[in-house]
Amino acid sequence: MRYKYWSLDDCHHASGVVVVIDVVRAFTCAAVVLAGGAQRDYLVSGVEEALALRQRLPNAVVMGEIEGIKVPEFDFGNSPSQLSRINFQGKTVIQRTTSGTQGVVRSRQAEKIFAASFCVAGATARAIRALKPAEVNFVSTGIRDDGRGDEDVALADYLAALLSDKQPDPRPYLERVKNSLVAGLFTNPDDPDFPSADIPLTMDLDRYDFAMPVTWEEGIAFIDIHSRQG
Ligand SMILES: O=C(O)[C@H](CS(=O)(=O)O)OP(=O)(O)O
């Protein structure tokens, strides 16, 4: 299997099997709300788009952020520790984030997309392996010019090792999340936007036994419980 690495800047060229990665925090949040009972998690690019979709869909709530800060009109921010305390049974979630959902929306050449974080890593690797692809494309959505994004590249490296049957020790990969630049924002347990409890959740390897394949309907991307694999 061959592996290619992409960022938000060039992922519009990625084709075939594409794994869109956002460890801190969008796709940790996506897994949390699906595990918490959400029927569907729509992944959108714009704030207005998210709010308009909420108007159209029954039992819909919006979660996400701009640069990590909850949008006042949204129901929830982008904190997996806060979202893990909510019952999403019967709800449809609409998610808009600065990095993760943009990666999905921009990967328009992909034939198959998986949204991924460490808490669904094992199931994601199994779902990819079942497709027997010759090549896997990893989009690390957190990469920025200032050095941010190593937490996403760490997951790409870990998945590549898993897919190569190397039986990797996960600890050095998870250490990279802890030591990432973005993790340094999460020092205060009471910070409403960057609570310190979020980082341990983003490092909770295989917390959930499902992958998050993305489906498109009428031009809108979503993950739903019927698409779960792994
Ligand atoms: O809220 C987050 O963790 C980030 C904010 S940003 O990308 O660092 O501005 O968003 P996400 O899309 O979850 O990476």
UniProtKB/TrEMBL annotation:
InterPro entries: ComB-like, ComB-like_sf. Keywords: Hydrolase, Magnesium. It is an enzyme of class 3 (hydrolase). It comes from the Bacteria. It catalyses: (2R)-O-phospho-3-sulfolactate + H2O = (2R)-3-sulfolactate + phosphate. PANTHER family: 2-PHOSPHOSULFOLACTATE PHOSPHATASE-RELATED. This is Probable 2-phosphosulfolactate phosphatase. SUPFAM superfamilies: ComB-like. Pfam families: 2-ph_phosp. Belongs to the ComB family. Its cofactor is Mg(2+). One of its GO terms (molecular function) is magnesium ion binding. Its EC number is 3.1.3.71.
